[in-house]
């Protein structure tokens, strides 16, 4: 079992908080500044489309019936073209379109212009997890916490393929692209728990690439971030440090530890056992092999599995590697 304490966030396919916000036919809860403008633009366009759809289809049906061919009915020739009518049906739609454009463009520019002062959070997207960094590389979590009523800037990067950062309640969505930073910002206005999804199909685990978003007061936020400074000496043994990291670093998204397959092999059967690789070679798993499997998983790909693990090079330090290795040894019942 995973060790749980208030500071150990869950990761992997999460049980989404079903507060009705996303499970509605209409817009989800509106919990950020500017979200109302986006909703207005949406409803405005929807109303215009509905009006013209009903008008055009309605008149179409009416004319088909009214002017149908029938005995004794002599069709009249069409009247000459009407300048007044043509100007009306050109000018009114142009005004409506300009209004739609202006509305969309101003909210877009507002979203693309980063505020000068804001809480800064770095985001790493990788198959199939989100990692949020709060000011220092030590302070990371698979959960997104943000202070209420303050602008928050997210600087995002991807370690593998294109992902997309989407928080419906904030009306915030932007692609996260490998090889470059993308930035997005929002000002949450309601404390509570929301959902974050990946909205760019990114492989087998895409549908589970979600995270919890927690909007809280500045004090609670700061206390939570400070609590992220967890180090090896906070744990009685190295394997318990590793067990904690296994959840925090998102390994549990792809690995079970109970002998069953997930995307990757069950990690309780790795250490000390013979591993067979896709290229026909094999070896008995020792510390060096486990270390390499975490840092450069593509070096030896376990037979029967895809080369789907994103390298952790640069995302785990030596102490964390020691912990993870100790945990994997512990799982295999090795001292
Ligand atoms: C995106 C899914 C994914 C994530 C996240 C992931 N792995 Fe993997 N892992 C795999 C796959 C698939 C394989 C098998 C292919 C290969 O060997 O590269 C694998 C292989 C391994 C192996 C070799 C297992 C064996 O049976 O020989 C180890 C050890 C390992 N992973 C550890 C980790 C650790 C520790 C983490 C977290 C720090 C992690 N993995 C995160 C998908 C993942
Ligand atoms: Cu994704």
Q: What does it look like?
A:
The chain has 335 residues and is α+β, with helices and mostly antiparallel strands. It has 3 domains: 66 residues; 108 residues, Immunoglobulin-like (Sandwich); 100 residues, Cytochrome c-like domain (Cytochrome Bc1 Complex, Chain D, domain 2). It is built from 6 helices and 12 strands. The chain is elongated. It binds heme C and copper (II) ion. The site of heme C has 30 residues, from helix 5 and helix 6.
Instruction: Please identify, by name, the CATH architecture of the largest domain.
Output: Sandwich
Q: How is the largest sheet built, in terms of strand order?
A: 3-2-1-5-8
Number of strands: 12
Instruction: Give unreliable regions as ranges.
Output: 1-15, 17-21
Mean pLDDT: 88
The amount of beta strand, in percent, is: 15-25%
What is the CA–CA distance across the termini? 19 Å
């Amino acid at each position: 079992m995973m060790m749980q304490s208030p500071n150990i966030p869950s990761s992997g396919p999460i049980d989404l908080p079903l507060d009705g916000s996303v499970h509605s036919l209409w817009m989800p809860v509106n919990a950020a500044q500017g979200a109302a403008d986006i909703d207005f633009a949406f409803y405005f366009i929807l109303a215009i489309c509905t009006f013209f759809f009903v008008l055009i289809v309605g008149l179409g049906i009416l004319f088909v019936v009214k002017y149908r061919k029938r005995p004794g009915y002599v069709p009249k020739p069409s009247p000459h073209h009407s300048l007044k009518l043509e100007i009306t049906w050109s000018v009114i739609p142009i005004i409506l379109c300009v209004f739609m454009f202006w509305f969309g463009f101003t909210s877009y520019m507002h979203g693309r212009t980063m505020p000068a002062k804001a809480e800064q959070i770095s985001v790493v997207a990788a198959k199939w997890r989100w990692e949020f960094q709060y000011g220092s590389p030590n302070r990371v979590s698979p959960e997104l916490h943000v202070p209420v009523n303050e602008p928050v800037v997210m600087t995002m990067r991807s370690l593998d393929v294109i992902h997309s950062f989407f928080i419906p309640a904030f009306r915030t969505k932007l692609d996260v692209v490998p090889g470059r930073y993308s930035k997005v910002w929002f000002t949450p206005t309601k404390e509570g728990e929301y959902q974050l999804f990946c909205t760019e199909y990114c492989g087998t685990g895409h549908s589970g690439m979600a995270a919890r978003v927690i909007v809280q007061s500045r004090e609670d936020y700061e206390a939570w971030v400070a609590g992220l400074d967890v180090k090896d000496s906070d744990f009685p043994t190295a394997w318990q440090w590793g067990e904690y990291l296994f959840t925090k670093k998102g390994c549990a998204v792809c690995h079970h530890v109970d002998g069953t397959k997930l995307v990757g092999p069950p990690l309780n059967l790795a250490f000390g056992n013979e591993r067979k690789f896709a290229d026909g070679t094999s070896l008995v798993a020792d510390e060096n092999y486990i270390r390499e499997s975490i840092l450069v998983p593509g070096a030896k790909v376990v037979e029967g599995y895809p080369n789907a693990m994103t390298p952790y090079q640069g995302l785990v330090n030596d102490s964390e590697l020691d912990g993870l290795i100790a945990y994997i040894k512990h799982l295999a019942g090795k001292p």
